[in-house]
Predict the 3D structure of the following.
Amino acid sequence: MFQDTITLKKLVTDPDDPYGEKEVAEEIEIQNCRFTLRTVYSGTNNDRQVVSNASIVLMSTYTTPFIDFDDSYQGAKIVFNGREYTITTINRDIEPFSRKVYQYKLGVI
């Protein structure tokens, strides 16, 4: 079920740049996730817009490494099967008693 591997590319400030102006792409390979191609729309009738073209599910019990996707990952790039996608939505599912995140659902376009 969680057999897909993706590459996460996030722009971060270069630590060697004394002015903090240069950004470099930090790449992380994430294994054992679920990548599903499906288009999600928002709106009604002729006023519909594409929200995402695919969704990615990352579960703490399967996915390695399990990254804490905060709002800074909005706009980061995901590479799957040689195609690059942009993260548009980040949904967190939290266990009710321990308050720990057990899965993320990412919408990409």
About this structure: DSSP finds no helices and six strands in the chain. The mean pLDDT is 91.
